[in-house]
Specification:
Elements lengths: L1 E3 L1 H7 L4 E4 L3 H5 L2 E2 L3 E2 L2 H7 L9 E4 L4 H12 L5 E4 L10 E2 L3
Parallel strand pairs: 1-6, 2-4, 2-5, 5-6
Antiparallel strand pairs: 3-7
Length: 99
C-alpha cells in the first residue's frame, strides 16, 4: 500500500478505481469527481464490488479510514492499493457536491 501526495494521486486515479470510504452523508457533502462511495463500515460486505485486476485509490477525510480499508483489502489478496495522503480535506482538485 502506498500513501500518495495529491500530485501522485492525481496522476493515477483516473485510470483506477476511485473509492471514497467515508460515510454517505460525508460523501454527499462533497467528493472527488468520479469517486464511488463504499464506506469503510460496509467494505467487509461490499469488497467484491472492487476489482482485483485494477489499481485501487482510496481516500477518506484524513487518512485513517483509507489506510484501514487498504489493509483490509490487502488481507483479502488485493494489491496495487493507494491512499491519498492528507485525505479529502487537503484535496484541491475537482469536487462534486450534491445540490
Amino acid at each position: 500500500m502506498k500513501h500518495l501526495s495529491e500530485e501522485e494521486f492525481r496522476a493515477g486515479y483516473r485510470k483506477a478505481q476511485l473509492i471514497d470510504v467515508r460515510e454517505p452523508n460525508e460523501f454527499e457533502g462533497g467528493h472527488i469527481l468520479g469517486a464511488r462511495n463504499i464506506p469503510l463500515s460496509q467494505l467487509r460486505q461490499r469488497h467484491k464490488e472492487i476489482r482485483t485486476d485494477q489499481p485501487v485509490y482510496f481516500y477518506c477525510q484524513n487518512t485513517v479510514r483509507s489506510g484501514r480499508a487498504a489493509q483490509m483489502l490487502k488481507r483479502k489478496g488485493y494489491s496495487n492499493l493507494h491512499c491519498l495522503k492528507g485525505g479529502f480535506k487537503g484535496w484541491t482538485g475537482k469536487v462534486k457536491k450534491k445540490k
